[in-house]
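Format notes (please read before filing issues)

Several people have asked whether sequences and structure tokens are stored in separate files. They are not. Every record keeps both together, in the order shown below: the sequence lines, then the token lines. Line labels are part of the format and must not be stripped during preprocessing.
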Amino acid sequence: MRTGKIERKTAETDIFVEVNLDGTGVYDIATGIGFLDHMVEQFSRHSLIDVTMQVKGDLHIDQHHTTEDSAIALGQALAQALGDKAGIGRYGEAHSPMDEALIRVVLDISGRPYLVWKARFTQEKLGEWDTELIEHWFHSVSQAAELTLHAQVLYGTNNHHICEGLYKGFARAMRQAVELDARKGGAVPSTKGQLGG
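Then the structure lines:
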């Protein structure tokens, strides 16, 4: 079982995250931000990665710390579950349609964190969640999980659809990338013999 568990406690947030890369998309998410819960649930269901995420954050200040720290903890749990990354597909890509919107997400579990973000939102909030934090969530998870991640909205007008398409695309790309490939015989998918570092 490829699992990861992170407990992160600071003056700003108290977080527990657990993942199972070989799951079925079962989730238990409570961040205190309804729309963020909905997006992490989409990630779990469509990646087939089981995710438990329990967050107590300083939401009386704003949503920044809860968003950032939950993404860091999720990324760290994913990295822990991946271990030395032996035998994984490594690369993943998905085109994610959501009604009028079409999103492309491409990633490499490279050990070299980098985010290319080609998305924007035309409203300040989705539910109660500040849309400016969506890019920050993806930046934080890509840094912590050491992903090279490219996310691009090809077209779309509905902000909810665009955001959900980004999370579903990320999920489907991660599903491809973390899956074990029997043809690799357990080898790390790099001519260097390691990923990152």
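For reference, the curators noted about this record: The beta strands are 3-9, 13-20, 27-30, 50-57, 91-98, 101-108, 114-118, 125-126, 129-130, 148-155. The helical segments are 34-47, 64-82, 132-145, 159-178.
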